[in-house]
Amino acid sequence: MKHALILGASGDIGNSIAKQLAAQGWSLYLHYNQNELAVTQLVKKFTKLYPHQEFLSVSFDMQKRENLATFLQSIFAVDALIFAQGTTDYHLLTETSFDELQKMWMMQVAVPVEMIKALQPKLARSKAGRIIFIGSVYGAVGSAMEVDYSTIKGAQSAFVNAYAKEIGTLGITVNVIAPGAVNTQMNRIFSTDEHQKIAADIPVGRFAKPDEIAYWVVQLTNEQAGYMTGQTIYVDGGWLK
Ligand SMILES: NC(=O)c1ccc[n+]([C@@H]2O[C@H](COP(=O)([O-])OP(=O)(O)OC[C@H]3O[C@@H](n4cnc5c(N)ncnc54)[C@H](OP(=O)(O)O)[C@@H]3O)[C@@H](O)[C@H]2O)c1
């Protein structure tokens, strides 16, 4: 039985990934930071639908590296590691504190990298281990008012470029799925007018549904996807890349 750990399963994109992987027979560790209810509901639902698979809820504030070792004790077998956690802030770089930068770096780069280092031996066991980050098109093209966010998303892509070269022979692939604008909690701060203006700039004419991002994550988890590694795959409706 294959096991995936989904960081940020309580978020909208993570939730969609969980639904699609559960339907494909995966057992899942479903991570949350604050929204325990979202994950508890998933565990309940999946346990009923897929009684022969395992579903566990796990929590961890990824801004706190000191809790990583304890968190890792709850992870046994793992074949796929999916980083779907993450937040952004909207302000000018000159108004961004060192502490804010540090928190974003910890949650989206430093702690994930530490986690990967610890879990690499487990991921190597099946000879088809998978590591997938949900990055962002802003990691390639950048966004004003989100310089810190764009920087860490670019760092995720740089990390997969390099790390893929170290682990290719272990059968582990490492990639980024980089969305454009997706209809999730993260974008609820936009007014209807702002939302429409952004949608009008996107060739497909709308924000992505979380399922349309999850779809590509699931493709990468497939055993036949073993030759795709070190890549950032842009899923942005033709918007910016
Ligand atoms: N939505 C978009 O347009 C878009 C575009 C490009 C890329 N992305 C990326 O997609 C990923 C998922 O975002 P989403 O749109 O699904 O947003 P979302 O629904 O707001 O989900 C955010 C997730 O991040 C988790 N999280 C927040 N703070 C955390 C912390 N300190 N430690 C650990 N986890 C934490 C949340 O956990 P709790 O809720 O349990 O606290 C939640 O699971 C992010 O990396 C984001 O950058 C999103």
The count of β-strands is 7
Based on the structure given, which CATH architecture is correct? 3-Layer(aba) Sandwich
* CATH topology term: Rossmann fold
- Low confidence ranges: none
Mean pLDDT: 97
Task: Output the structural class.
Answer: alpha/beta
- CA gyration radius, whole angstroms: 17 Å
**What's the N-to-C terminus distance?**
37 Å
> What small molecules does the structure contain?
NADP nicotinamide-adenine-dinucleotide phosphate
Summary of the model, kept short:
It holds the Pfam family adh_short_C2. The chain has 241 residues and is of the alpha/beta class.
Describe this structure in words.
The protein has 241 residues and is α/β, with parallel strands linked by helices. The protein has a single domain (3-235), classed as NAD(P)-binding Rossmann-like Domain (Rossmann fold, 3-Layer(aba) Sandwich). Helix content is 44%, strand content 15%. The chain has eight helices and seven strands; from the N terminus they run βαβαβαβαβααβααβ. Helix 1 links the parallel strand 1 (3-7) and strand 2. It is globular, with a radius of gyration of 17 Å. The model has no long low-confidence stretch (mean pLDDT 97). Residues 8, 10-14, 32-35, 61-63, 84-87, 107, 134, 136, 179, 181-182, 184-187 line the site of NADP nicotinamide-adenine-dinucleotide phosphate.
Considering the chains and any ligands shown, give keywords for the structure.
44% helix, 8 helices, globular, 7-stranded parallel beta sheet, alpha/beta, binds NADP nicotinamide-adenine-dinucleotide phosphate, 241 residues, Rossmann fold
